[in-house]
Amino acid sequence: MWSNIALRTVLRSSLGVLRESAGTSGTCCSALLSRNKVNSVLGVFSPPAPVRHYARATKKKVAGLESQLSDLPPTMLKMDYAAVPLAETTDDIVKRLLSLELASQSEKLALKKEQLIAKVQRDESDRSSVEVQVAILTARIRNFQEHLLKHHKDKANKRRMLMAMDRRKKLLKNLRLERYDAFEKVCEQLGITYTFPPEYYRRATRRWLAKKAFCIKVFKEVQKQKAEQKLKLAAKMETASQ
Q1: 174 and 131 in contact (C-beta within 8 Å)?
Q2: Does 1.20.120 match the CATH number of domain 103-190?
Q3: Separation CA 134–CA 172 (nearest Å)
Q4: Please, which residues have CB within 8 angstroms of residue 37's CB and are 6 or more apart in sequence?
Q5: Which of the residues 70, 72, 126, 153 has an alpha carbon 20 to 30 A from that of 111?
Q6: 131: closest CA among 177, 185, 84?
Q7: Nearest alpha-carbon partner for 114 in 99, 124, 102
Q8: Domain residue ranges in the chain
């Protein structure tokens, strides 16, 4: 009973406050009542939702590298069915199943490897020469680069890509020293830009710089002592000759 009486008094007081504010504020109170939701039990008003009068800047899409598989037509047959003459005489549905239109990424990559190998191999049976190894590594490196543009936090594939790049550098370096004409052909056919490695490279740490400065100081002091000894020896020779 006492709870019902207290609830009625709270509702009456809240309605009285609303009437007084309606008489003074007018349009502001009507907008406030339209926005706020009145709790029928307690008579408490919920705060209005915040309005943000600004627009977020749209993120610009980063233009990535063109895929190396973009030049493969979707009507081309897969590598396993390219030499089968019956695949050309089948109906359209079977051709779609056997073509690159419904092929996986690994199947397309295998076909791209064969195309690159055909450009640089010495003969038709060549599968293990340096040129063929460089072509296979080039296809893998470009595939890793395309993958890392979409998934830049994939550290495992980034490590595999760097290992493949180091392996290709060693092969190209040896090929350049042994057969320079084949080296130029491989770089031209595969579109590789070869940069010469530095003769000596070492990371310049603070300890290494201090050690280098100390060694230079010791070397200069030793050269100074040798010059003084030469002058003394020359003076002794002059006195001995007189």
Answers
A1: no
A2: no
A3: 8
A4: 45, 46
A5: 153
A6: 185
A7: 124
A8: 2-35, 103-190
121 contacts 131 by C-beta, under 8 angstroms: yes
Which residue, among 184, 142, 196, has the nearest Cα to 164 in the 3D structure?
142
CA distance 188 to 119: 10
242 residues of the chain, pLDDT tens digit each: 555 666 566 556 655 544 544 444 444 444 444 444 444 444 455 566 665 655 555 556 555 567 888 888 888 878 777 777 776 777 778 778 888 888 888 888 988 999 999 999 999 889 989 999 999 999 999 999 999 999 999 999 999 999 999 999 999 999 999 999 999 999 999 999 988 877 777 778 999 899 999 999 999 999 999 999 999 999 988 888 87
**CA 8, CA 220: separation in Å to the nearest integer?**
100
CA distance 25 to 27: 6
Partner residues linked to 77 by β-bridges: 99
DSSP H helices, 53-129, are 92-98, 105-120
Residue 201, sorted as left (phi over 0), alpha (psi -120 to 50) or beta, turns out to be: beta
User: Which among 104, 130, 131 is positioned nearest to 188, based on CA atoms?
Assistant: 131
Chain center to CA of 59: 18
Residue 77 phi/psi, 5° resolution? Answer: -75, 160
